[in-house]
Amino acid sequence: MEIDINRIASIGEAVIVRLEGINAARERALAESRQIIRLSANAVRAVHRNEFDVAEELLRQAQELKDALVSHLADYPSIYWSGYVQDAHKEYAEARITLGVIGGRAIPDPAQLGVEDAVYLNGLGEAAGEFRRYCLDAMRRGDLSRAEALLQVMDEIYGLLVSVDYPDAVTGGLRRTTDMVRGVLERTRGDLTLALQQQALTEALGRAETLLREQQRDREGA
In terms of domains, do 107 and 130 share one? Predict the structure, then answer.
C-alpha cells in the first residue's frame, strides 16, 4: 500500500490556517470586549453625574464595537460563546438599562440591544445595584420621591428575576444575580424607610416649633 506522505503536511497546513484564524478572532474579541466594558463603565459613571448625552455617546461607541465584533465572530461560535464576550454584552446591557431608567428614557429590550436573553437578565440585575447607588444620592439630596420611584423599579426587576426558574446553564448564573438583587433591594428599602421616618419627624418638629412660636406671639400680644 502506497502512503501519501504529503497528505499529512497538507492537512497540517489547513489546520494551522484555521487555528490562526481562531487565535486572531480570540485576540480581537479579548481586546474589543475590554473596550466595550470600559466604555460601558464610563457611561454608567456619566449617568450618575446626570451627563446623559455623554453616556449616550459612549454607549454609541460601545454598540459599534459590539455589533462589528458579533459580525466578525459569526464564523467563530466558540469565541462568541466564550465568557468574556458575553460579559462585555452584559456590561453594555447594564449601562443601557441604567441610562434608560435614570435618564427617563425607554427601557430597551434584548432585541434592541442585540444581546442574548440570559445576558440581558443578568445585566438587568446588575443595573439594580446602580439604582441603589442613585437612590442613596437622591436621599442625600432630600429627593425621596425620586428614591421611591427607583425602589419601585428595583422591586419590579426582582419580581421578574425571581420568576425565571431555569438551570444556571440556561440563564448564565442568574440565581446568583437574583440573590444579589434581593439583598440590594432589602437594604435600599430599609434605608429609604429610615429616611422617610426622619423626614416625617423633621416635619412634625417643624410644625410643633411653628405652633409654639404662634402661641408665644399670642401670649405676648394678650
Answer: no
